[in-house]
Prior knowledge:
CATH class: Alpha Beta
CATH superfamily: Aldolase class I
Shape: globular
CATH topology: TIM Barrel
Largest sheet: 8 strands, parallel, barrel
Radius of gyration: 17 Å
CATH architecture: Alpha-Beta Barrel
Strand content: 15-25%
Number of domains: 1
Number of strands: 8
Distance between the termini: 8 Å
Strand order of the largest sheet: 1-2-3-4-5-6-7-8
Bound molecules: cytidine-5'-monophosphate
Amino acid sequence: xxxxxxxxxxxxxxxxxxxxxxxxxxxxxxxxxxxxxxxxxxxxxxxxxxxxxxxxxxxxxxxxxxxxxxxxxxxxxxxxxxxxxxxxxxxxxxxxxxxxxxxxxxxxxxxxxxxxxxxxxxxxxxxxxxxxxxxxxxxxxxxxxxxxxxxxxxxxxxxxxxxxxxxxxxxxxxxxxxxxxxxxxxxxxxxxxxxxxxxxxxxxxxxxxxxxxxxxxxxxxxxxxxxxxxxxxx
Length: 234
Ligand code: C5P
């Protein structure tokens, strides 16, 4: 069954803890991104874990293999459940991340690969020297590189998840942001999918921020999304 991850896009630890309390027991997984992590550091990860929740630490590592390996080991010691690296760090870096995660056994962090940032288009790819290939082709080839190098899954947009999930054996993790319940405000997301269609397309985890954090009743908003996710049989 697909899991809901709420993006803790807030600027301080107290607000994060308050949001988790408001959302209540139905949500067991939270994403801490660069904003909250650079503001609060390790304390915020510990605070979320102390509330009994799983943590997706989204810091998108991209460095030489040795540095990424050591960073993943630190993330593993924190008890983080999911973490991200850039697949453009290439095979050796991805393998180093996966090997460091494996040292923690079944409780280690799962390594998710970021392929092409959704903010980038064909012209941006060209600017960084990736020519004669569409963003979709680049996403697909980087996802294959990442999984064959030991990553557990990929972060992908709702319009990539259908194709990608069919390209890999079962067991690969597909984490999809850009999810909006029907009728919800889209905000700055350009390509959105409903919770049901993302799950039907093969997403194993949905990341949702504003539709829950900004709702008058965050617990009810989360429950409605979970009900919609659970209505899809896969
Ligand atoms: O508020 P919203 O539901 O749009 O939040 C989605 C979360 O997923 C944010 O933390 C955002 O940074 C993240 N994300 C995204 N699109 C990507 C990758 C990450 O929206 N391609």
